[in-house]
Amino acid sequence: MSTAEQPPTGTGSGEHAISVRDLRQNYGDFEAVRGISFDVGRGELFALLGTNGAGKTTTVETLEGFRRPSAGSVRVLGADPYGQPPELRDRVDAVLQHSGLFPELTTAETVDLSRDLAADPMDRDAVLELTGLTDKAGVQVRQLSGGQKRRLDLGLAVLSRPEALFLDEPTTGMDPEARRATWDTIAGLVREGMAILLTTHYLEEAERLADRLAIMHRGETRAEGTVRDVVVRWGDRIAFRMPAGVRFEDLPALPGATAAAELRGGEAWVCYTVRGDDADRRAHRAMEPLLEWARSSGTALDRLELRSASLEDVFLSVAEGAAEVVSGGPGSD
Ligand SMILES: Nc1ncnc2c1ncn2[C@@H]1O[C@H](COP(=O)(O)OP(=O)(O)OP(=O)(O)O)[C@@H](O)[C@H]1O
Q1: Which part of the chain is the ABC transporter domain (predicted)?
Q2: Ligand 1 near 66 CB (within 6 A)
Q3: 105, CA 20 to 30 Å: which among 50, 179, 241, 244?
Q4: Is residue 226 domain-resident?
């Protein structure tokens, strides 16, 4: 295992709470992470999304100090996290997928145990309130539901008021109400200035919480930015059922749009993807000539739909390898 090149350490080494530069991680000959970079500022939540096996856990484990980079560098609060050095121990925490709660202890005893180990912990009551577990204070951990245990995990991670927090699928197993309550809790932590790196398979969770996000696939970052940036880059979609008697090449060229023919439930459809910097107006500009063409040619646009992208659209397109546009669109000879 090679030692990565590292920038200078110390509290003054950059304003980002979490920093990843050209990170590579190999397992033997297999490249699990292939040169990714991103930063997370204080008071910012960055979501790491990706397909199964994309390299998210490997990246987070590297930031948590369990793995040394094969190449590139990572920094947490200006320090190399490898081996979890003492200067980071009280300032960084994590909610991992598998918690290490003691089933015989009560919820309150569990909180007290963690408080005993923290330098300047939150009050027990505050932790219980934050996690919505006040009425479960005297209940043994073994009797808590899966979602309640996840909330307790979160409470234990934040009671020492860490500056940087890693959340690995923190709402798995929660019902929708508990998930929303947890989102509120997490949003509150970010507002207080915590830097949070979140991995999740719930796209709505990322849409609600992330200031910025990255979507990983096969060890690489395939999309990155704010939710809006990522979605705007993907484009808007105008679609309708292919009109009878109209050939694909007879369809009008629309400004800023590329067209593709696709099958939906055995029917041929036309789908225009509209891109361009003018995200607010581009679909409108593309729609006008389409409607004009339909009017002048006497063509009905059956089941016409216009839709802005969602994060799910982008994710699925990344997962499918981002192949999308059929070449040789309408209007071209
Ligand atoms: N200890 C290991 N030895 C060999 N290969 C590994 C090891 N850990 C992970 N991998 C491989 O590295 C790749 C990335 O795995 P990782 O767990 O980081 O992905 P992930 O994005 O967290 O996936 P998921 O969403 O499924 O949890 C996968 O192909 C996985 O099989």
Answers
A1: 18-243
A2: no
A3: 179
A4: yes
- Mind listing the pLDDT tens digit for each residue in 285-322? 999 999 999 999 999 999 999 998 889 988 988 888 64
Look up the ipTM and state it. Answer: 0.97
Decide: 55 in ligand 1 pocket, CB within 6 A: yes
112 with 155, same domain? Answer: yes
Q: CB 47: neighbour CB atoms within 10 A?
A: 26
181 shares its domain with 258: no
Q: Are residues 31 and 142 in the same domain?
A: yes
Domain final residue pick, 202, 230, 258: 230
Residue 18 is classified by DSSP as: E
Q: How far is the CA of 27 from the centre of ligand 1 (A)?
A: 9
54 lines ligand 1 (CB under 6 A): yes
The rounded Å distance from CA 312 to ligand 1 centre is 22
Ligand 1 centre to CA of 57 (Å) is: 7
Tell me the pTM: 0.83
Residue 122 inside a domain? The answer is yes
Residue to probe by mutation, ligand 1, list 29, 52, 58, most atoms within 8 Å of CB: 58
CA distance 274 to 257: 4
CA dihedral 53, 54, 55, 60 (to 10 degrees): -100
- Per the DSSP assignment, residues forming a β-bridge with 263 are 268
In a domain, 5, yes or no: no
- Residue 267's H or E segment, with its range, is strand 267-274
**Structure confidence at residue 216 (pLDDT):** 95
Task: Flag residues of the chain having pLDDT under 70.
Answer: 1-14, 321-333
